[in-house]
Amino acid sequence: MKRLTYVWSTIGLLILFAVFLMFQMPGMPAWGTVKLTDILMIIGGLLFIVPIYMDSLRRKDDDGAPNRWVWATLPPIGMAVVCVGILIPNTVGFFSLFPLADVFYLVGCLLMLPIVVYPPFDLNREELEEEIEDMEERMGRP
């Protein structure tokens, strides 16, 4: 299953790289303010991050990480916020300081942080197994 995660994530990265190369090409198809590169960026980004998110969720469930709602709910909300940020035109400002799309990117990325951050102060399975083995050795059990 882990290999499939890498395959989908690699496909997503290749799409994102292709979008990077296409970004400044003249004559890019557009539907209003949404360009082909925006749609491909959303597809590539989701292909990249969703398998990693699913693997992270599975690992945290196996280890019994506390507060499952944080690890399971916030990242998909962050993905949706980033997708909306991609679709918002950069001409829309946020208090005339910077583009509103940048605010959406920042908030979305912060909401996706639980994908890569493991719960603090939580014992994972390997640490528990080592502790049990140490206790068994101290008590004289084989």
Task: Give a description of the structure.
The protein is mainly α and 142 residues long. Helix content is 68%, strand content 6%. The relative contact order is 0.11. The model has no long low-confidence stretch (mean pLDDT 84).
Euclidean distance between termini CA atoms: 35 Å
Helix/sheet category: mainly alpha
> Considering DSSP H and I runs of 4 or more, what fraction of the residues is helical?
55-70%
DSSP strand content: 5-15%
Secondary structure tally, helices: 5
Number-wise, the strands total: 4
**What would the principal axes of the Cα set say about the shape?**
elongated
Mean pLDDT: 84
Low-confidence stretches: none
Listing every helix as H and every strand as E from the N terminus to the C terminus, the arrangement reads HEEHHEEHH
> Radius of gyration from the CA trace?
21 Å
What's the main sheet like? 2 strands, antiparallel
Order of strands across the biggest sheet?
1-2
In short:
With 142 residues, the protein is mainly alpha-helical.
Question: What topology does this entry show?
Answer:
Elements: H1 2-22, E1 30-31, E2 34-35, H2 36-62, H3 68-87, E3 93-94, E4 98-99, H4 100-112, H5 125-139
Antiparallel strand pairs: 1-2, 3-4
Helix pairs in contact: 1-2, 2-3, 3-4
Structure keywords:
about 140 residues, two-stranded antiparallel sheet, mainly alpha, two-stranded antiparallel ribbon, 4 strands, 5 helices
